Amino acid sequence: MHPGTTRFLLSLFTAGLFAVNCQAQWQAPAYELWLRPDFDNQTVLAQASLTLRRGPQPEAELRLNAPDLEIHSASIDGITLSPEKLGGHWLIKLNPSLAARLELTLKLGYLARAGEGLVFGSDYAYTAFHTCRWLPCVGSDLGRASLRTTLELPAGFGSLASGVQVSMPPGSPQQQWFEAAPYPLYTLGFAAGRFTRVSQTAGDKTLHFVGVSDASAAALQAKFKTTPEMLAFFTDKAGLSLPHPSYSQLLLPGAVAQEMSSYAAIGRQMLDPILDNEQEDWVIAHELAHQWWGSWISCEAWSEFWLNEGITVFMTAAWKQQRWGQAAYQRELDIAARGWQRAKDANFDKPLSWPGDYPSLSLKRAIHYSKGALFMHALREDLGDEAFWAGFKRYSQSNAGRQVRAADLQAAMELAAGRNLQPLFDTWVYAAPNSQ
Ligand SMILES: [Zn+2]
Questions:
Q1: What 3-state class would DSSP assign to 67?
Q2: In angstroms, what is the span from residue 230 Cα to ligand 1's centroid?
């Protein structure tokens, strides 16, 4: 299948249309989870400890944006609470003394069932994008939080989760991972299964290629062989080392393609074209690029989602230009141009940061992925390579670990260009070509 059609199966394309973006008073900057997957029943038994901080006013209601979790216990400081399921969330009412506290630790016991966002095979399980299907999210899924994940697994099962693996005593049935830096909730996740794992060093980083069930080490190595070169390319362009000491790519059945903090879940359908044509490496590049743009640097609002995806599509094209030549770069731009054309044909050509609702995923993708990538190319053409890449490095370095808006990119590019870029940004990003 032509990758131009394959690649639009990415699960993250659902982002934004279903996003909960409530202005919660309570925020959860830190989650700690203990998880026991049941591979026969396709469930995860969980205990969670959430650090909660409130806004300036006492707040007697706490919302968990996780309606599909079966919560069976909730407490704060030993005080039993009674969560109520109300439509799209769980509501926990707090007494006045708890409501007035600036910080609370909420303990939850719950069960998560297989479904969108929590996928089970016979001997593996993984999460993808819909974080609130397995983690009791507080606030927007654009919000950032740290995560400690402890997995209790059958003998012989391996794991992956956001952050770095924490060593446990020999013989422990538990495997633990810790993402210490706050990362967007949609990039937090875990996977477990009978893994085949191949590891190699790349500079001061370690790359892991991981497969489930019947994966062969030789096939993993062959499919992911260009990763070290990609890592060097993105590191150079970002002016920033990969944020974690290692990066894992988990190869799964199906067509998933999802960046998580410190790893990516990649479906075989997305990657296997590489066996026929080694230039079909876009999904490896796309998900690796997200370790900088989309995860470490993440959009502040869903209307700025193009800063995650447009930049990543562009950086995938830039990788291809460096590795496979100008024609490969142009081919990626042509695919993006066809994507953008869909929006034009539908008379729905919106500015990149347009805050309205899209009627379909296809049109949202056409703007955020395709037009976003073409805007980055237009910036490059306007500034010239030297100023463009200097501005891009400045944007990356000054926003690592932060949420961004278009103005952050504009500021970095203007400094590098030494001139005002408002007209260009107005044309592509802020103005409304077809006001609707
Ligand atoms: Zn993406």
A1: coil
A2: 16
Q: Which CATH fold would you assign to the domain 299-430?
A: Neutral Protease; domain 2 (1.10.390)
Going 400 to 423 to 360 to 300, the CA torsion angle's sign is: positive
The residue ranges of the chain whose pLDDT is under 50 are 1-23, 434-436
Antiparallel, parallel or unpaired: β 246-252 and 118-120 = unpaired
Q: Under a CB-based contact definition with an 8 Å cutoff, are residues 141 and 186 in contact?
A: yes
User: Domain spanning 27-183 has what CATH number?
Assistant: 2.60.40.1730
User: Do residues 252 and 126 make contact, with C-beta atoms less than 8 angstroms apart?
Assistant: yes
State in Å: Cα 197 to ligand 1 middle: 24
74 pairs with which residues across the strands? 108
DSSP string, 271-317: HGGGGT-TT--HHHHHHHHTTTBTTTBEESSGGGTHHHHHHHHHHHH
pLDDT at 25: 84
Report CA(395)–ligand 1 centroid distance (Å).
19
d(CA 304, CA 293): 12
Cα–Cα dist 292/295, whole Å: 6
Output the CA 156–ligand 1 centroid distance in Å: 32
CA 172/CA 370 separation, integer angstroms: 47
Q: What are phi and psi of 153, to 5 degrees?
A: -130, 155
Question: What is the torsion angle, in degrees rounded to the nearest 10, for the CA atoms of residue 290, residue 117, residue 19 and residue 73?
Answer: -120
- Rounded to whole angstroms, the Cα distance separating 175 from 181 reads 19
The angle, 0 to 180 degrees and rounded to 10, between the axes of the packed helices 227-238 and 282-289 is 40
Please give the distance, rounded to the nearest whole angstrom, from the Cα atom of residue 6 to the centre of ligand 1: 13
Rounded to an integer, what distance in angstroms lies between the CA atom of residue 277 and that of residue 280?
6
Where b means 16+ CB within 10 Å and e means fewer, 81-110 reads bebeeeeebbebebeeebbeeeebebbbeb
- Model confidence pLDDT, tens digit, residues 304-333: 999 999 999 999 999 999 999 999 999 999
Judged by DSSP in three states, 193 sits in: strand
- What is the DSSP pairing of strand 246-252 with strand 263-267? parallel
pTM of the model: 0.93
Domain(s) labelled CATH 1.10.390.10 in the chain stretch across 194-291, 299-430
